[in-house]
Amino acid sequence: MRSPASPTRLVYSTDLGRLCPDCHQAMADCRCKALAAAARPAGNGIARVSRESKGRGGKTVTLVRGLSLVDAELAALGKQLRSTCGSGGTVKDGVIEIQGDHRDRVLAALLQQGFKAKSAGG
Questions:
Q1: Cβ contacts of residue 34 below 8 Å, gap of 6+?
Q2: Backbone phi, then psi, for 73, in 5-degree steps?
Q3: Each residue of 31-47: pLDDT tens digit?
Q4: Does residue 48 sit in the same domain as residue 83?
């Protein structure tokens, strides 16, 4: 028996197939990712490379912000930077995250590829 406090939501329909959990539309008609990409702040073309450890359980990550690239190009650049540093990471909301403190290495790689880049933060 379901508790009245837990709302039910449809996750699959035989007519539409799988449904988006956010907008409850069919996955083919879902606009959540497009809205999230449009809501992402546009970069000014200058890559800002910083180091952050807040909210990550004391683990340090190197962040690259401010690049005005489409998602596929950003993912490819993230993969190349991760392999240059020899560590893991991800691309989230237009920000490349690389595990560990690799600011100098990432900055040098970005400058070598012709990006305008600068170190940010302390």
A1: none
A2: -65, -40
A3: 776 666 555 556 677 88
A4: yes
